[in-house]
Amino acid sequence: MDLKDRKPNEKNISKNKHFIYSLDFAITGLKTAFKDERNFRFHCFALVAVCMLGVVMRLSVIEWIWILLSATLVIVMELVNTSLENLVDMITNYHFHPLGKKVKDMGAGLVLVQAIFALIVGLLIFGPKFYDLIFH
């Protein structure tokens, strides 16, 4: 049955009855992204490296908030981008479509904008600390 042939109240799947099921699906999604997506793995490893550096540099609470927020949002944007890419591939059956390309390019733009923001935050926080470490 085609999606447009379905009646509005017709359901394909049922709602999760327990929070634990939703949590299991979310964890499965993260595992899938980590296994299948090179960029997602890179961003996860970068987050771990930045956290280790933050411990060594003894970041303040507010610095931790900025670092974790900006780095975590890169991972969130990567998940959104990956979801969009998979959705386009499913809809187009892996055939090129100009609108599909637009969606994929814009999704990649999401990640790029957030990654640049995270880089700027990282430079603003770690830059002065490295400067003091090297020149003082």
TrEMBL record:
- A Gene Ontology CC term for this entry? plasma membrane
Active-site residues annotated for this sequence: 78 (proton acceptor)
Record carries keyword Metal-binding: yes
User: Where this protein primarily resides, as one coarse class?
Assistant: membrane
- Topology in the lipid bilayer: Multi-pass membrane protein
- What PANTHER family would the database entry show? DIACYLGLYCEROL KINASE
What this protein is called in its record is UDP kinase
User: From what organism does this protein derive?
Assistant: Enterococcus cecorum
